[in-house]
Amino acid sequence: MAKWINDLSTYQICKESAMKVIKTVLVTGSSSGIGYGIAKVLLQNGYQVVLHGIEPHSQVTSLVNDLSEQGKVLGYYSVDIGNPKAIEQFCSDLKTANITIDILVNNAGIQHVAPIQEFPVQKWDQILAVNLSSAFHFMQHLLPYMQTQKWGRVINISSCHGLVASANKSAYVASKHGIVGLTKVAALENAKQGITCNAICPGWVLTPLVEAQIEKLAAEQGISIELARSNLLLEKQPSGSFAKPEEIGEFVLFLCKPEAAQINGASLTMDGGWTAQ
Ligand code: NAD
User: Fold this and answer.
1) Average pLDDT, the chain
2) 42, 51, 103, 210: which sits with the fewest CB atoms below 10 Å from its CB?
3) pLDDT of 243-267, one tens digit each?
4) Domain segments of the chain: what residues?
5) Cα(87)–Cα(104) distance, rounded to whole angstroms?
6) Burial class, 65, CB count within 10 angstroms (exposed 0-12 / middle 13-18 / buried 19+)
7) How far is the CA of 107 from the centre of ligand 1 (A)?
8) Residue nearest (by alpha carbon) to ligand 1 atom 23
9) Above 50 in pLDDT, residue 16?
10) Angle of CA points 82, 185, 95, to nearest 5°
């Protein structure tokens, strides 16, 4: 940044950075479901996107090719974000590749459904690590660059389960409530630095994560997949329909815009009325 910019107010510097033409986004868990939808919408709108998932590259080649047709993909990284050392290495690899992240979307997440007394301890630890701690680790590594340039966006994909609970989802609900709290702290710490941090709280979105729950429900209750799907929706989501991954993508897109600069520390629902009840 030119030296004269040092003499401008923070507000002017923020404005300058906001005008930087092409922004780079990391979307964790973009090899599937909601993350894929977010990456697609951002690519279509001129953002450069770093793709990520747990699957090896060979397993997602066609998906990466499809997304590359939508815009500028800066690579696919297969990293287990349940491991803080792997996150550190990933962020260092990005630096080595001269990739600086302007927008971080902490999206990757997992689920396990069981009552507390039967909940496997290893599953509890894994869900907390992937759904919550990973967001802390990514922020620790990637916020300093955003702070230097006085512009950044952190968007955490929480859930309506970040605001209300459902039985049998102890680890998931704890991790999603945790990320709502972490979002508020990051928002406060960076509020004067041109950086916002918000959580999106979707209700049901039809993705592999939810398909697995529908299949489990159908098997447990001895009912068809179609009936299990409609029961699942009707139980919690007043709209009676699923949100689409691309709709979450459009929400993320808006939060990246200069017009969203004053939305900060918020938990924004997109749940067909689930949490209005
Ligand atoms: P999904 O199963 O379709 O995709 C999960 C993604 O996370 C994949 O890209 C996978 O590679 C990645 N991932 C999983 N474990 C990982 C690990 N250890 N290391 C690295 N990456 C890993 O799930 P989805 O439904 O698209 O969910 C995405 C996010 O949205 C999650 O945080 C989920 O909790 C949240 N969410 C989903 C719904 C829904 O109804 N689908 C609702 C609310 C919130």
Assistant:
1) 93
2) 210
3) 999 999 999 999 999 999 999 999 9
4) 2-204+244-276, 206-242
5) 13
6) exposed
7) 6
8) 209
9) no
10) 50
Q: How far is CA 150 from CA 31, 92, 246, 252, 265, in A?
A: 30, 21, 29, 20, 17
Residues 6+ positions from 85 with CB-CB distance below 8 Å: none
Q: Are 237 and 203 in contact (CB under 8 A)?
A: yes
CATH for 2-204+244-276 is 3.40.50.720
| Distance of CA 108 from the midpoint of ligand 1 (Å) | 4
- Per the model's pLDDT, the better-predicted residue between 107 and 17 turns out to be 107
Mean pLDDT of 35-54: 98
Q: Tell which atom from ligand 1 comes closest to the C-alpha of 34.
A: 26
For 34, 51, 69, 113, 141, the CA distances from 65, given in Å and listed in that order, are: 18, 11, 7, 33, 28
CA 186 to centroid of chain Cα atoms? 15
List the catalytic residues.
172
Tokens representing 100?
A: 């600086």
* Lowest-pLDDT choice from 13-22, 96-105, 139-148, 245-254: 13-22
Q: Which two tokens stand for residue 163?
A: 């605001």
Burial class (CB in 10 A: 0-12, 13-18, 19+), 179: buried
Say how far apart CA 1 and CA 10 lie, in whole Å.
13
Residues with CB under 6 A from ligand 1: 29, 31-35, 53-55, 80-82, 107-110, 130-131, 157, 159, 202, 204-205, 207-210
